[in-house]
UniProtKB/TrEMBL annotation:
Its EC number is 2.7.7.6. Belongs to the archaeal Rpo6/eukaryotic RPB6 RNA polymerase subunit family. Keywords: Cytoplasm, DNA-directed RNA polymerase, Nucleotidyltransferase, Transcription, Transferase. One of its GO terms (molecular function) is DNA-directed RNA polymerase activity. One of its GO terms (biological process) is transcription by RNA polymerase II. The keyword Transcription applies. DNA-dependent RNA polymerase (RNAP) catalyzes the transcription of DNA into RNA using the four ribonucleoside triphosphates as substrates. Part of the RNA polymerase complex. The gene is rpo6. This is DNA-directed RNA polymerase subunit Rpo6. The keyword DNA-binding does not apply. The lineage of its organism: Archaea, Candidatus Iainarchaeota, Candidatus Iainarchaeia, Candidatus Iainarchaeales, Candidatus Iainarchaeaceae.
Length: 81
C-alpha cells in the first residue's frame, strides 16, 4: 500500500531529529568513526534500520497509522488505530 512508505519529507525529518538527539549526547546505535558527523551517524542508523523513532499519520477521516521506522524504515509494517 502506498501509505506504508515514508515520504521524502518524513525521511528527512526523522534523520534530522535523530541527528539532533545525537548532537545533544544520545548514544549512537551503530558503529561510528571519529570523523562521522551527527548527521552521518543518523543516516547510517536509518540505512541499517535501527532508528529508534516512529511516524504517526492522521488521515482526514480520523484514522491513524503508526509506522515503526526502526524495524523496516516504514516500508511494510503499520498499525491502524
Amino acid at each position: 500500500m502506498w501509505f506504508l512508505r515514508l515520504t521524502r519529507f518524513e525521511r528527512t525529518r526523522l534523520i534530522s531529529a535523530r541527528a539532533m538527539q545525537i548532537a545533544l549526547g544520545a548514544p549512537p546505535l551503530v558503529k561510528v568513526s571519529p570523523e562521522d558527523s551527527p548527521y552521518d551517524i543518523a543516516k547510517k542508523e536509518f540505512e541499517e534500520k535501527v532508528l529508534p523513532l516512529s511516524v504517526v499519520r492522521v488521515f482526514p477521516n480520523g484514522k491513524r497509522v503508526f509506522l515503526e521506522v526502526g524495524e523496516n524504515n516504514g516500508q511494510s509494517r503499520a498499525e491502524a488505530d
